[in-house]
Amino acid sequence: MRADLERILIPRERIAARVRELAQAIARTYAGSEEDGITLVTILSGSLIFLADLIRELPIRMKLGLVTVSSYRGATTQAGEARLRDALNVDVTGRHVLLIDDILDTGGTLRLVRDELARHAPKSVRTCVLLRKPSKAPVDVQAEFVGFDIEDQFVVGYGLDYNDHYRNLPDIGILRRELYA
Ligand code: 5GP
Ligand code: MG
Q1: Domain count of the chain?
Q2: Which atom of ligand 1 is nearest to the CA of 102?
Q3: pLDDT of 129-167, one tens digit each?
C-alpha cells in the first residue's frame, strides 16, 4: 500500500495531535450543552476512522448517527452527484447537531446532508471536517472545525479510499498519479 503513494502528506502523529485539538475546540463550543448533549451525524464511509479517534477525545455527552452518501466516484477521482443512500438513523429534532465528514471538496456532499437535516428542525448545525481543499470549497458550504487545509490533490488513507482501497493506511498520502484514471 505504502508503495502506491507518491508521498505521505500528513503522518499519523500530526493527525493524532490535530484530532485532539479539534476535540478541545468542539468541547469548548458545546460547553453549555452538557445536559442534553449533542448529536454527531457522521457521513460514511470515509469518516469512520476520524470519528472513532475524535469521539474518544471528546468527553461530552453525545448520540451518534450515521448516514451514507454515495458520490459515484468508483474508480475515478472525479466527484459525481451526491445522493443519500439511506434515511437518518437518529433523531435530530431540537438537538445540537455536529456533522462529521472526512473532506470538504466541492461541497456537494455536505450541502445534501445539511438540506436533509434542515427538514428535521435541529436546534443548531455545525460541521467538522478533517480535511478541506480551500481552492475548491464553495462559499455556501463552510465548516466551523477544520483539521487541515490541503492542496487540490487526491489523497487516501486514514479512512479515505480510492475505489474502496487504502482506508486502513494510518497516514494520509497522495496516491501516485499513474494509479488512477
Ligand atoms: P464533495 O462532495 O465535497 O465534492 O466531496 C466530498 C466527498 O468526496 C468526501 O466525503 C470524500 O468521500 C470524497 N473526496 C473528495 N476529495 C477526496 C480525496 O482527495 N480523496 C478521497 N479519497 N476522497 C475524496
Ligand atoms: Mg465521503
Answers
A1: 1
A2: 10
A3: 999 998 877 888 999 999 999 999 999 999 999 999 999
105 in active site? yes
> Which CATH number is 123's domain given?
3.40.50.2020
Residue 74 has pLDDT above 80, yes or no: no
pLDDT at 140: 86
Does residue 27 lie within any of the structural domains? Answer: yes
Mention every residue, 6+ apart, whose C-beta is less than 8 A from residue 159: 45, 46, 47, 48, 49, 50, 102, 167
For residue 21, report the phi and psi dihedrals to the nearest 5 degrees: -65, -40
With respect to residue 179, please indicate whether it lies within any of the assigned structural domains. Answer: no
Ligand 1 centre to CA of 32 (Å) is 33
**pTM greater than 0.90 (yes/no):** yes
Exactly one of 101, 105, 149, 164 is catalytic; name it.
105
Residue 139 lies in a domain: yes
- Amino acid at residue number 44: L
Find the domain containing 89 and state its range: 2-71+81-173
Q: What's the pLDDT score for residue 29?
A: 96
Do strands 62-70 and 38-44 pair parallel, antiparallel, or not at all (unpaired)?
A: parallel
pLDDT at 38: 96
